[in-house]
């Protein structure tokens, strides 16, 4: 029997790798003869580096770079097992978890550009970028400045690489952008389909969760519109209404300026680790996430994994931290949907004991799988 375990992380609790290894422990305890392979998944947000480095036997490269508040900090990027592809997460250099007080008026993506430059100088030309969990709405001017772009105000002075400076930009010049980027493949992993500006744009949709007040959201959106118009005039093409341009506070737009392609985060991660070929040869697929509900149908990792399994007639099981409203819709993709909690329990208790709860739940499911396969074998004998 071959079992593939490919969960997302349990946000603010366990990484995808920790979830996967806990599930594996439970299945191997009950079905020691099974071949159990783990493929920690991600969708481009926090944990994407860890998932891909682990699944492809890659490595991390430690780098000092500018953090979201303009102060140098420890960061890293991943190099996949092919030793040719770099994965960079905005969460690792300009992420919300890196700051105690959220304020997108003063945060910057400058460090992203520094990480890219470092990898370029090391000879890498294939890049994957994860855009989830950003603390910025600077439309990527920080990243682009680090890469050599120039943004000047009306007096000809360089504007600071922060969100509140967008409306002050008078001149944009991309002629000095690192020429090595022209040799690169740039793929952006993001499941955010928001455009850059307006009510469905980066400021109005994500501004509040990044700490922006109502008047600041209006100001940021004006800045995004002003800056985008300047860029589009300079480039001679329209980019701001492409789905994903508003991802990560407009970093999606900045990557489009560089000629990058925006793709589904889960799809990119799965492709990089060759997940489809492994699922194709499996008997069962186990996946999960911190909370599953009706929203999980719309591009979340577990459903993406289950769709691959369904394509090859492989049975899928869902084990999540909690099941919420409308989770019944997930039965279109899964044989069974389960929560790791076994009775009345607080969120704090559940998070504290998540590893053991995962092991216990996977052992219980493994016993059922073993019984199903045993009965099927008996039926086939007759």
TrEMBL record:
Family from the record: Belongs to the glycerate kinase type-1 family.
Gene3D superfamilies xrefs: Glycerate kinase, domain 1, Glycerate kinase, domain 2
GO molecular-function term, one example from the UniProt record: kinase activity
Pfam families: Gly_kinase (PF02595)
Coiled-coil regions, chain positions: none
Protein name per Swiss-Prot or TrEMBL: Glycerate kinase
InterPro entries per record: Glyc_kinase_flavodox-like_fold, Glycerate_kinase, Glycerate_kinase_RE-like, Glycerate_kinase_sf
Keywords noted in UniProt: Kinase, Transferase
């Amino acid at each position: 029997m071959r079992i593939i375990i490919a969960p997302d992380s349990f946000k603010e609790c366990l990484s995808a790798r920790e979830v996967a290894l806990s599930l594996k422990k439970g299945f191997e305890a009950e079905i020691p003869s099974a071949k159990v392979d783990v493929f920690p998944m991600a969708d481009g947000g926090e944990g994407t580096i860890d998932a891909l480095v682990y699944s492809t036997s890659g490595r991390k490269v430690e780098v000092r770079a500018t953090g979201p508040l303009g102060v140098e900090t420890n960061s890293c990027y991943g190099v996949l097992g092919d030793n040719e592809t770099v994965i960079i997460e905005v969460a690792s250099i300009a992420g919300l978890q890196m700051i105690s007080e959220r304020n997108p008026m003063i945060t910057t993506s400058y460090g992203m550009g520094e990480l890219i430059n470092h990898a370029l100088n090391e000879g890498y030309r294939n890049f994957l970028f994860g855009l989830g969990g950003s603390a910025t709405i600077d439309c990527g001017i920080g990243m682009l400045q680090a890469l050599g772009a120039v943004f000047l105000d009306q007096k000809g002075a360089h504007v600071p690489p922060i969100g509140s400076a967008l409306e002050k930009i008078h001149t944009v010049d991309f002629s000095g952008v690192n020429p090595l980027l022209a040799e690169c493949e740039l793929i952006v992993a993001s499941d955010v389909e928001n455009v850059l500006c307006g009510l469905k744009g980066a400021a109005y949709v994500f501004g509040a969760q990044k700490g922006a007040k109502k008047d600041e959201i209006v100001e940021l959106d004006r800045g995004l519109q002003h800056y985008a118009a300047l860029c589009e005039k300079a480039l001679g093409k329209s980019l701001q209404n492409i789905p994903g341009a508003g991802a990560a506070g407009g970093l999606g737009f900045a990557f489009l300026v560089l000629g990058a392609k925006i793709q589904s985060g889960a799809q990119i991660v799965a492709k990089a680790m060759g997940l489809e070929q492994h699922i194709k040869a499996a008997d069962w697929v186990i996946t999960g996430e911190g909370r599953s509900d009706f929203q999980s149908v719309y591009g979340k990792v577990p459903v993406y994994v289950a769709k691959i399994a369904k394509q090859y007639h492989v049975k899928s099981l869902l084990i999540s931290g909690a099941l919420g409203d409308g989770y019944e819709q997930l039965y279109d993709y899964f044989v069974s949907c389960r929560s790791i909690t076994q009775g009345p329990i607080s969120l704090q208790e559940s998070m504290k004991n998540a590893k053991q709860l995962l092991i216990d739940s996977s052992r219980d499911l493994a016993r059922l799988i073993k019984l199903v396969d045993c009965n099927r074998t008996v039926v086939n004998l007759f």
